[in-house]
Amino acid sequence: MIETRKTIPMPVRYLINTVLVLALFGLFAGLIEGGLIDGYSTTVLSLAGINIILAVSLNVATGYLGQLPLGHAGFMAVGAYTGGIFLKGVNASDLNGPLYALAILVALVLSGVVAAIFGVLIGIPALRLRGDYLAIITLGFGEIIRVIIQNIDDVLGFEFTGGISGLKRIPSFTNFYLVLACVAATCLVIHMVMKSHHGRAILAIRENEIAAESSGINTTYYKVMAFSLSAFFAGVAGCLYAGHIGSLVPKDFGFMKSIEILVNVVLGGMGSMIGSILSASVLTILPEALRALEDYRMVAYSLALIVVMIFKPSGLMGQYDFSMSRILEKLINRGGPKAAPKAKGGEGK
What digits encode the pLDDT tens for the residues 88-137? Predict the structure, then answer.
C-alpha cells in the first residue's frame, strides 16, 4: 500500500496562525489586566519586541541570504529619525482618535520605506562584495549614516535631526500591543516571502551563488531585494523605538548596536525565525532579570552567551523553524497507513 500523507491547505494554515496570534494577544491582555504583568515588565517586553523585529529582519540578510552586513543599526536610525521627525512635524500629540492612529500608521510605513530606499542605495554597490569585504563596507555605511544624522543640522543651517544633542520631545506612542502587532506582521510578511518562489531564489543564492546564477536566477536583484526587505523592517523597529524612548541620540545607533543585533541572530540560529525571537527575548529580559546582581549581572550575561556558543555553536535553534501546521500534520498522519515493505531478492516478482 502506498502511504498517502494528509496535508493542511494553505488558507487553513494562515487561519491557524491567525488564531495563535489572537490567542497570544488575549493571553497578554489577561495577564496585564490581571496585574500579573506590571508597567515595568510591559516596558521591558515592548523593548524585547522591538529587538525581535530587528533580529528577524537581519536574519533575512544573514541567515536566509547568507551575507554578513554590519550596518543594521544605520537602517534603524533612519527609521527612528524619519518617524520622529514626521510625528513632530504633524504635531501628533495634538491629534485624537482616528487621526492619531493614522499618523502613527503613516509614520511606521514611512520609516520603513525610507529605510528600504537607503537599503537599495547601499545594497547595490555593497552586495557586489562578499564575506569580510561586505561586512566592512556595510559597517562603513552604517557609520556614515550616523555621522550624517549628527552633523546635518550644521549643513542645513536649521534644526532637523537635533544634531549631537539628539531629537527630543517625540510623541510617546509605542505600547506593548502595537509592538506585538508589528512583531506578528513582520514575522508573517517574512514567512510569506521565504515560502514563495522569491524566498527559494534567496535560499538558492545562500547555498551556492554561482549555481543559482547559472540556473537563471538574477542574483543581484534578489540580493538587493532581501537587503531592502531587511532594511524596511529595521526602519519600522526604529520608529517604534523612537516612540518608546521619546528622544533619540546618534550615539545610540553606533557600531555596537549593529553587533548587538547580530549577536541575537547568531545566538538564535542563522536562518531560524523562532531562534531569533527566542534569543532577542532572552538577551533583552536577562539583563533586567539579573539587575539584582548589580556589578555581576553583565558577567553572568556574558557567561550565558559563552556557554550557549560552546555547547550549541549553531545557535539555540540551528536552522529549525517552528510550525504549528507541521505539528498538526504529524498528528493527523500518525497511525495512518504505512508503505508496504520492499520485496527482497526475487520475492514478489
Answer: 888 887 788 889 999 999 999 999 999 999 999 988 888 777 777 888 88
Its sign, for the CA torsion 188, 64, 255, 266, is: positive
Measured torsion, CA atoms of residues 274, 279, 280, 284, in degrees rounded to the nearest 10? 150
Phi, psi values for residue 76, rounded to 5°: -60, -40
Query: For residue 196, is pLDDT > 70?
Result: yes
Q: What is the CA radius of gyration of the chain?
A: 23
75: Cβ contacts below 8 Å, ≥ 6 apart: 115, 118, 119, 145, 230, 231, 234, 235, 238
The Cα 110–Cα 235 span in angstroms is 9
CA distance linking residue 242 with residue 179, whole number of Å: 12
8 Å CB contact between 201 and 115: no
3-state secondary structure of 248: strand
β-bridge partners, 167: 248
Q: Which residue, chain included where needed, has cell 557600531? A: 255
Cell digits of residue 209: 551563488
User: CB of 69 within 8 A of CB of 127?
Assistant: no
Residues near 287 by beta carbon (within 8 Å), at least 6 away in sequence: 297, 298, 301
List the beta bridge partners of residue 248. Answer: 167
Q: Which residues fall within 8 angstroms of residue 347, CB to CB, at 6 or more apart?
A: none
